[in-house]
Design a protein that fits this description.
Amidohydrolase family protein, Metal-dep_hydrolase_composite, alpha/beta, Amidohydro-rel, Metal_Hydrolase, TIM Barrel, disordered C terminus, 5-stranded mixed sheet
């Protein structure tokens, strides 16, 4: 099938300038040629797609999402046996928001792969998924690495079932092993069909705010070597300056949230190492408005860490390291977003500044990095070409060139003039086909509204108080009821 996209300004991600007056010829889902309409060999039966006055860029990529991020006890119980539906919904949310390919860096391997394959076969619409499954060395959702309280109230049967779904043979037991034994376990996990490897260079959880190292340097190299031996990329979860240095020296292709290094800034020598190695720098930035909000809600310690993360982001812009867009993006259940405790975290930011939202967080990222001094074309490449290169899929994705998959994002305004213009989506084309954006997601679950209040809720009387809080009551002062 042939299509010819005409009339638009093309920003291909290769040239440093926009291309005006050119057309894009698409054949069987791939770009056949880009050039002047009258100079292209256009078949007589080609479908003309007129995008006059629009701006065409490569489909956006996201280097770090979690399509089943809402792994709370309530959500996993409510949708037990339906995780594929949740992941499909999230993939459709991502596609509607202009992301034609996303890289899921933590989630239930088997379910993610099932949805990935359905999308690849064309049986289900959604953003193209590539997945790592579990983070090597981490325990499951109902553990000290994530949501330990669930294990205190759920049955051990359900806790073990959920944790096994995420972890299999890739969990914390690897920390007791020799590097060679770690490599063997990683090799077994890779053989189950994941697309890339992610491991924990540093811990995840509240034990030491991310300061503890998870694996020795030799063990990290064994993990990376196994990934590369299988032809896959390797990345680390890093939250300290030493974890970052060790990840780069281990040969990682990219490092997730590398600007998060606790209360200290990345040393100049490590910034230089980043640039020399061309390891992908996956940055989690907040906008200036988001930082102001966080400053007023978190502890002094956490604010110091966010301040260092902002300094790191700015320094990485000037370092010469390839910067990648990512945001831990996921779909949160509406009942979770209402929880008071969430407002005291980075996921509780006002919607316009909330980095972690799958549908909008990548737009926040682009505005935040614009504020930190990233040039317009560098912003576009951070969301397209740089990610494709880091994951070694740039033969197919990341730029608009002959031979590549026809993933196009059509905007109503020039993204090189302002980062906010990425939000002005006119159309999305994936594999050369226009997407029905209005119909996504097809089956809302977590994106659906909460059910209306029960009649009984209007009659409900709280046990301790109703109305004004009692002064001097410790529980009232803490907002615990």
């Amino acid at each position: 099938m042939h299509k010819l996209v005409i009339g638009a300004t093309i920003i291909d991600g290769v040239s440093d300038k926009s291309r005006e007056g050119d057309a894009i010829l698409i054949v069987d889902g791939r770009i056949s040629a880009i050039g002047r309409h009258d100079q292209l060999a256009v078949p007589a039966d080609a479908e003309i797609v007129d995008m006059s006055g629009k701006f065409v860029i490569p489909g956006l990529l996201n280097a770090n999402v979690h399509l089943l991020v809402n792994a709370s006890l309530e959500t996993l119980l409510r949708f037990e046996g339906r995780y594929e539906e949740l992941i499909t919904e999230a993939a459709q949310v991502a596609l509607k928001a202009g992301m034609t390919t996303v890289f899921d860096t933590w989630g239930p391997r088997k379910v993610l792969m099932t949805v990935r394959d359905r999308i690849d076969r064309g049986e289900t619409i959604g953003s193209r998924i590539r997945c790592a499954g579990n983070i090597i060395g981490f325990d499951g959702p109902f553990s000290g690495d994530f949501f330990a309280k669930a294990a205190e109230v759920a049955s051990s049967w359900f806790v073990d079932r959920v944790n096994a779904t995420w972890v299999e043979n890739s969990g914390r037991h690897l920390m007791w092993m020799t590097p060679a034994q770690v490599g063997e376990e990683v090799r077994t996990y890779i053989e189950r069909g994941i697309d890339f490897v992610k491991y924990g260079a540093t811990e995840h959880g509240g034990m030491a705010a991310g300061a503890f190292l998870q694996f020795s340097e030799l063990a990290q190299r064994a993990i990376v070597d196994e990934a590369h031996r299988a032809g896959l990329t390797a990345q680390s979860h890093s939250t300290s300056v030493e974890g970052l240095r060790m990840s780069i020296e281990a040969g990682c292709d990219l490092v997730t949230h590398c600007n998060m290094t606790g209360p200290v800034a990345i040393p100049e020598e490590t910034l230089g190492l980043f640039a020399r190695s061309q390891c992908g720098a996956v940055i989690f930035p907040l906008t200036d408005a988001g930082l102001e909000h966080v400053k007023g809600t978190v502890s002094d310690l956490e604010w110091t860490m966010w301040g260092a993360a902002d300094t790191n982001a700015r320094n990485l812009v000037r370092s010469g390291a390839p910067i990648l867009l990512a945001n831990d993006g996921g779909v949160f259940a509406p009942e979770m977003l209402r929880e008071p405790w969430l407002k005291g975290t980075w996921n509780g930011l006002p919607e316009a500044e909330a980095l972690g939202r799958l549908a909008t967080g990548h737009f926040v990222w682009l505005r935040a990095m614009e504020e930190k001094g990233m040039a317009p074309m560098d912003l576009l490449r951070a969301a397209t070409r740089n990610i494709a290169r880091a994951y070694k899929v740039d033969d197919d994705f990341g730029t608009l060139e002959a031979g590549k998959v026809a993933d196009l994002l059509i905007l109503d305004a020039d993204p090189l003039e302002a980062a906010r213009n990425y939000e002005r989506i006119h159309a999305v084309m994936k594999d050369g086909a226009l997407v029905d954006l209005a119909g996504l997601p097809e089956h809302p679950l977590l994106t659906a509204d909460l059910p209306p209040p029960l009649d009984e809720e209007g009659n409900y009387k709280r046990f301790l108080h109703h109305g004004a809080r009692m002064p001097g009551c410790p529980s009232c002062a803490a907002g615990q009821h």
